[in-house]
User: Fold this.
Amino acid sequence: MSLQHGCSDGCSTGTQAPNGRYRIILWLALFINAVMFGVEMLFGIWASSVSLLADSLDFLGDAANYGISLWVLGMGLAARAKASLLKAATMGIFGVWILGRTLWGLWVGNLPDAMMMGSIALLALAANVLVAAMLYTYREGDSNMRSVWICSRNDALGNVAVVLAAIGVFGTASNL
Assistant:
């Protein structure tokens, strides 16, 4: 059989042996995401922005994602697959919470601070683009390696949506 990603038996029980550079990049990504979680949570509350709060939870989820990926890095395929399922379930829980928070904000009529929302979203965009660029080389690995790159890439696209939402709030002075 051909060797693929360090497996010789079809990857049923094989382990991957990523290089030390990948571990360093994961640690840096974890740090950047943990810091951005704190920044966006603080400013999301201050600006009354559900978009920033949602993105802050996404940064928390990504930091956990990188931590889990570091933890299972040298483990077998079954452990790495279970870690991927845990990551997906966590993001689903975050999504349900944000939906509830959004509906609450519509009910009470909170208007977010558009300038702060847009500024922090641009900072978050820069952080996600940086992390995605660092992980680009590893985007073709196992489900955990792909998931960390895909998360950062998709999060950068999400940050563009938050910037557009801030522009919409600024232009219309409305939270709808």
